[in-house]
Amino acid sequence: MRKQEELQKSTKTDQDCAIQRERIKGKFAMTITIRSGECMKIIIFSDVPAMAICDQIETDFCVRPECVITGKVDSILLKKYQALLDTRESLVILISSAGYKDSMESVLGIRSCSSVPIILAANNLSRADEYILRNAGVDDFHEGLEYDTFFCLQIRSAKRWIDRFGNHDEKNNIRFGNWVFQKNMSVVVSPDRRSFRISQKEYRFLELLLKRQGDIITRSEISRYVFKREWDPTDKSIDVLVSRLRCRFRKEKQYQGPAIENVRGVGYTLILN
């Protein structure tokens, strides 16, 4: 009996290993596209010829990447591909042979207009370079400029991340008018996609205003929700908080932000313009 169980386990292990080896060879198309109802969209910015990489990605993922051969990813180029960068299922692959400085400029340019995942393929980046670039917005690194098994697995991992992010996108993003409140990042995005980060107290206050949009929220309710204490009439913390949040919206002069109206003697209410 034991010998049969051991034989079954051994056979199962061999089958698992065979499946794993088969997957590592590539051909992830069925694994990836069936799980999600929508296909991943890939855009490649490269300063070296990348048609061979595009062909290999298309073979593995059944997605033809948009390939742009450019020495530098500038604002004009990003504006041209803004619609693609705004798509939830998009992935940017940045292939750079120029080194750390040009890679950083390209990453900062992409991050200024999009939160799309970025994989950076480059040569001879030190750990310090990777650390700084990761803080600038790179999600994953690939050593070298060639497409290989590891590169394929990195794209697969990015796809899984995109799927998870997409499932939680509606919970994390609250839209009010043409503005978006990204709760998971404590960021408010204006209609022209300019963003600004808000403090923890501002986050709590804006969250409360949006939850009860159109209602009058008393100072006592604001104090308990934001500051976790009972309201004291001599305390000016709420007035300072309201003033700071109003100033942040007023800085976006091109677009009229939501108005935080004072209801004298009662509290505040949010009015969308």
TrEMBL record:
InterPro entries: OmpR/PhoB-type_DNA-bd, Sig_transdc_resp-reg_C-effctor, WH-like_DNA-bd_sf. Keywords: DNA-binding. One of its GO terms (biological process) is phosphorelay signal transduction system. It comes from the Bacteria. GO terms for molecular function: DNA binding. Residues 171-272 form the OmpR/PhoB-type domain. Residues 171-272 bind DNA. This is DNA-binding response regulator, OmpR family, contains REC and winged-helix (WHTH) domain. It comes from Marinobacterium iners DSM 11526. The lineage of its organism: Bacteria, Pseudomonadati, Pseudomonadota, Gammaproteobacteria, Oceanospirillales.
